[in-house]
Amino acid sequence: MNRKDIDPDASAAAAFGQRLRSMRDERGWTQEELGARIGCTGSHVSAVETGRRTPTQRFSARCDAVFGTGDRFERQGRSVRRSAFIEGFPEYLTHEARAAEIRLFEVGVIPGLLQTSEYATTLEADAVRRRAITPEQAAERVEIVARRQATLDRTPLPLIHVVIDEGCIYRPMGTPQEMRAQFDRLLAFAEEPHTLLQVAPFAMGPRRPFSLPLYILTMPDRSLMSYAESAQHGQLERESASVVRMLTAYHQLQAEALPQAASVAMIEKLRKATL
């Protein structure tokens, strides 16, 4: 059986997973046996151990009860849930890194997969200023942006369809020079043979089917999943009927958005304004 290594220093979730695995191993329990004691499946235990799922308050409390650890797991679980990312996103990333096709829609900011490091740093620095996250969490978010982009350089290359709200490119982030570099990044992305970049203009009005960011993945076995998030929650959806409905709406979004040539022309015009 393949056993994934866990680096407890990588994140709060990894530290939780390592402790859980260590205590399970000490008792000689399989993941299924621990799951039966906690009230979940062995696959759920596996996902928590490897950081693909965030331990809920109930899961953490049941671990304390099973292992007799007072409230250690519950306290550690709270630190995981207060980490740099909302619940559901770390699990989504494990699937994004393997997807054959990635379709995304973003509102207000350039999506992480296309951000320059300067853009990402400026974005997270503002979140620190607002005390929404800590400086350490900001650094973790910027690092994840780079790691996500690195996973795209794989064989075969994933097909990537990106639709961004017009506000993404009109919202300044950092200095004019940094915005020019970000525009260059978008234009370079549009030149790739496995990508498509479109801008959803304000003029779409009510014809724009989504109001929140959305990611739709086609996995190598052609199964579908989607990920959507609000300010506080992320939801990974694997139920085919639900994902197909969102995929249909995404195709409608692409039909209404500007073609790539017009989108590139809009970005080039904004880039010239930064000179």
TrEMBL record:
Organism phylogeny: Bacteria, Bacillati, Actinomycetota, Actinomycetes, Kitasatosporales
- What is the official name of this protein in its record? Helix-turn-helix transcriptional regulator
What is the species of this protein?
Streptomyces bohaiensis
Q: Can you tell which superkingdom this protein's organism belongs to?
A: Bacteria
> Which one Pfam family would you cite for this protein?
HTH_31
Domain HTH cro/C1-type, chain residue ranges per copy = 20-73
